[in-house]
Design a protein that fits this description.
- The protein contains 7 helices and no strands.
- The longest helix has 30 residues, at 137-166.
- The radius of gyration is 20 Å and the shape is globular.
- The chain has helices at residues 18-25, 29-52, 56-81, 89-103, 107-119, 137-166, 169-193.
- By secondary structure, the protein is mostly helical.
- 73% of the residues lie in helices and 0% in strands.
Length: 194
């Protein structure tokens, strides 16, 4: 007889009452804003330190550390795609756009792709199916390629290729308006900073 897989623990298994569990899942504005400010400050601080560092290996180590904090911002953006970061849908959308702006990837295509990923998880229709299927060397290589090169490749993919191939014309128009605003704002900021 085949054993069924172990079920994940329920809140009661962890000694939590339903009210405690709901309290843990309730978005808190101060906590959320604090995490965003902390991650941005650490990212910018490490990036500044990397620019000032002397030897190449020190620069590389500091840029690598800064990358972990960019990943933290992407994880917060992930919560905006699900409308979980704030209690308000509008606040999630606005924050999702701001976080997308910071990391250089537009909000709409990322949300569109990610919700399809949940809808078709680990099926041939899953847009993130690069790691689905029978484990093999090719699956492992694809997984780590995405993990290592995902953010730099996400910029051209989600800003241009994905919208053109997966989004409807109305969604594309909205996306490219937002992308134009992102681009102009980045250009103005970088011109002022340099």
């Amino acid at each position: 007889m085949k054993e069924s897989p172990a079920r994940p623990p329920y809140p009661a298994d962890l000694g939590l009452e339903r009210a405690d569990w709901q309290l843990l899942l309730t978005p808190r504005l101060g906590s959320t804003l604090g995490r965003i400010v902390l991650l941005v400050a650490l990212w910018l601080g490490l990036a500044g330190a990397a620019q000032a560092a002397g030897p190449w290996w020190a620069k590389a180590a500091l840029w690598l550390a800064a990358g972990f904090f960019v990943n933290g911002l992407v994880q917060l953006a992930h919560e905006t795609w699900h409308h979980n970061l704030f209690a308000s849908v509008r606040a999630n959308v606005v924050c999702g756009h701001l976080l997308g702006f910071l990391v250089g990837v537009s909000y709409e295509p990322m949300r569109h792709d990610h919700l399809l990923h949940h809808k078709f998880n680990r099926t041939p229709r899953d847009p993130d199916a690069y790691n689905a299927g029978t484990p093999s060397l090719a699956t492992v290589v694809r997984f780590y390629a995405v993990a290592l090169f995902g953010l730099p490749l996400a910029i051209p993919f989600f800003n241009f290729l994905y919208p053109l191939t997966h989004m409807e014309a109305r969604q594309q128009r909205q996306h490219f308006r937002h992308l134009t605003a992102y681009t102009v704002t980045h250009a103005v900021l970088w011109t002022k900073l340099w």
